[in-house]
Amino acid sequence: MFFLIGGITPRIKVLDEKPVICPVCGLAQAYHKRVDYWLNLFFIPVVRIRKGEPFLMCERCERQIHEMGEEYLAAVDRMNARCRYCGRALHPEFRYCPHCGKAVSTPSGASTPES
């Protein structure tokens, strides 16, 4: 008697090991990934059946780019901010630049102390 154990299983492949900034949570924990489907025989992947489409997925908030919708578009608009001192990309809500450490904006209504 002979038994054959097989099936098709999805496997997530990370396409780029360098993280990018997640447009929703703002942390550099988003990776380009792809889901491929493999034919398994005796729990060993043998042949890739279907190659999936690449997508961006955040490790922190676990959201994919197509699930973000309006949040993604609003965040992309905000991501064009730059530090006026060092010129590096900066989230517009930051009060201090994480790269050079300088204050990038003063809170509204704050006055400077006079001597």
From TrEMBL:
Superkingdom of the source species: Bacteria
InterPro entries: Double_zinc_ribbon, Zinc_ribbon_15
Domain Zinc-ribbon: 20-101
PANTHER family tied to this protein: DOUBLE ZINC RIBBON PROTEIN MJ0416, OS05G0435400 PROTEIN
The protein's name: Zinc-ribbon 15 domain-containing protein
Organism (species): Desulfococcus multivorans DSM 2059
Taxonomic placement: Bacteria, Pseudomonadati, Thermodesulfobacteriota, Desulfobacteria, Desulfobacterales
